Amino acid sequence: MAVPSFLARERTVARPGFNRWLIPPAALAVHLCIGQAYATSVYKAALVKHFDASLTSIGIIFSIAIVMLGLSAAVFGTWVDRNGPRAAMFTAACFWSAGFLVGSLGIATGQLWLVYLGYGVIGGIGLGIGYISPVSTLIKWFPDRPGLATGMAIMGFGGGALIASPLSRQLMDLYDPAYDPADKASVPAGSAVALLFVTLGLVYLVFMLFGAFIVRVPADDWKPAGFDPSAVKSKALVTRDNVSAANAIRTPQFWLLWVVLFCNVTAGIGILEQAAPMIQDFFRDGTTSAVAATAAAGFVGLLSLFNMGGRFAWSTTSDYIGRKPIYMVYLGGGIVLYLILATLGSTATWIFVLTAAIIISFYGGGFSTAPAYLRDLFGTYQVGAIHGRLLTAWSAAGVAGPLIVNTVLDSRGTPGELVAGDYRPALFIMVGLLAVGFVSNLLITPVADKWHEPSSDAVRTTERSAA
Amino acid sequence: MSSTGSQPMHTPAALIAFAWTLVGVPLLYGLYQTVKTASSLFTG
Questions:
Q1: A285 and A410 assigned to the same domain
Q2: Which residue segment(s) compose the domain that A442 sits in?
Q3: A with B: how many residue pairs have Cβ under 8 Å apart?
Q4: What is the per-residue pLDDT for A216?
Q5: Confidence at A22, pLDDT banded by 50, 70, 90
Q6: Helix (H) / strand (E) containing A284
Q7: A199 near A207, Cβ under 8 Å?
Q8: Cβ of B35 and A353 within 8 Å?
Q9: Domain end marker among A227, A246, A265
Q10: Least confident span in A177-186, A321-330, A333-342, A442-451
Q11: ipTM confidence
């Protein structure tokens, strides 16, 4: 599928002297926008009331978007690698923005299916393409610090929710004078959400297009000043060879890493999904909890900060201690922390908050370190496409995590009456999952030579002819 | 701002500063708002 010449990959090849520190803000311009996907709870109640629908019917909008994220990243990953980041980021901007506009039309006309189609399907495609395109570009610009590079971009995805939540509240307050963001019982009108969607769609379009037009790819022979590629090769598991996306999914390493990401994300989502009621239930005495609703909201905010911070800090740390060891920390440390949470979590608020916060930082770190791990194992040739295929683990975890926790809690009692002990079976299931992930990570070895592309020169020739 | 060809170029520091400001300001706004919300965990 050809792209217009102004988006073509060859038009984005940086000339000598280009400063690579212009690339992280280009990546952040996209990820800060698509990270809004984590802020959908802000208008959930408004949509339930507007459509007179169930929470599940409205929750499906987010589920469709996340499933489409995984599918589009997997399906369009090779196209993204072939056509370069400008075409990909431009396309992502159009889809993400169009998703909001179609969704807005659905809200304004009372057609819920249009919101599914708009935000869920069309926006979800924008999410998938937007998620992978700046990541693979940053990896190529920072071969000396791939963990830092992927951490910067994927931190932006966590940051996007931090921006979109308060901004959405303020905008809905502007569009609906009767709505009071400070009052938890106040629900904005559907028309305010429709206008919010239009505003976000247009603002995100401008922001993402800015990223698309400043992004560049490095020339084939470019390397950072003072960088010695042979020093990278000397590290365990790090290859200078390249594996195509089609071959990568035929290797055990890809599927082991898929299991690692699936287990890490499932365990993290288990806490994230239930954060506010969970902290209240852990400190419940009868029908009242020692933790007030406002403090529970503060706990959710704190987890968001650790989610975002973990994405940057842990991924950057992986540049120094290696990708396999850092996942041993995420998964092995996660096992210990989940056990502490299950056994001692209800004894003191600070123990609960601290363990949950570190677990969520590992959850974020697992996301941002994954593309750097892929680059170590499979090279940079089609790392975007391979990353796209790996993100199907996120989609699967997005279904499995809440399913595990909700099934366990449904079998233990009714919301508002649950206590710490009711969460233990779910927490022990997460411990088991993390153990599976830990073993999978241990089994990861360098990719066999037979999967490597014939030579680096051949790869470059293929890349050029494809572009 | 075409980037084709192999003529050396210089990326203006102002462009880099502008780009970082454009993404940094909203991020700081989000961080501030979230820290404000999170603080209620310790005060609320």
A1: yes
A2: 232-467
A3: 117
A4: 94
A5: very high
A6: strand A284-285
A7: no
A8: no
A9: A227
A10: A177-186
A11: 0.87
Mean pLDDT of A119-145: 92
In terms of pLDDT, which residue wins out, A63 or B26? B26
CB-based contacts of A377, cutoff 8 Å, min separation 6? A237, A239, A243, A253, A254, A257, A444, A446, A447
Which residues are within 8 A (CB) of B25 and not within 5 positions of it... i.e. 6 or more apart?
none
Q: How far apart, in whole angstroms, are the C-alpha atoms of residue A94 and residue A7?
A: 13
At B7-28, the pLDDT tens digits run 777 888 999 999 999 999 999 9
Which residue, A438, A236, A406, is CA-closest to A335? A438
What kind and span of H or E run contains A149? helix A146-175
Alpha carbon of residue B34 to chain centroid? 17
- Asked if A101 and A239 sit in the same domain, the reply is no
Is B37–A297 a contact, with Cβ atoms under 8 angstroms apart?
Answer: yes
What is the distance in angstroms between the Cα of B25 and the nearest Cα belonging to chain A?
10
User: Which residues have CB under 8 Å from B13's CB, separation 6+?
Assistant: none
- The token pair at A335 is 């096992």
Together in a domain, A306 and A266: yes
pLDDT digits (tens, 9 = 90+) for A262-298: 999 999 987 787 788 888 889 888 778 888 877 887 8
Closest to A297 (Cα-Cα) out of A404, A165, A417, A156: A165
Asked if residue A429 has pLDDT above 80, the reply is yes
Domain shared by A41 and A120, yes or no = yes
B28 and chain A in contact, CB less than 8 A: no
Task: Give how far Cα A43 sits from Cα of A11, A38, A40, A96, A181, Å.
Answer: 41, 12, 6, 18, 11
- Count Cα neighbours of A397 within 13 Å in the Cβ-side half-sphere: 30
Handedness of CA A224, A229, A233, A238 (dihedral sign): positive
CATH number of the domain where residue A460 is located: 1.20.1250.20
Of the candidates A451, A32, A431, A336, the residue with the CA atom closest to the CA atom of residue A210: A32
- If asked whether residues A80 and A216 sit together in one domain, one would say yes
* Contacts with B40 from chain A: Cβ below 8 Å: 294-295, 297-298, 301
Q: How far apart are CA A327 and CA A320, in angstroms?
A: 13
The total domain count for chain A is: 2
**Which residue did the predictor score with more confidence, A200 or A402?**
A200
CA atoms within 13 A on the CB side of A436: 18
Q: Which residue has the higher pLDDT, A80 or B1?
A: A80
Nearest to B41 among A13, A18, A295 (CB): A295
Q: Does residue A446 have a pLDDT over 60? A: yes
Tell me the average pLDDT across A291-320. Answer: 88
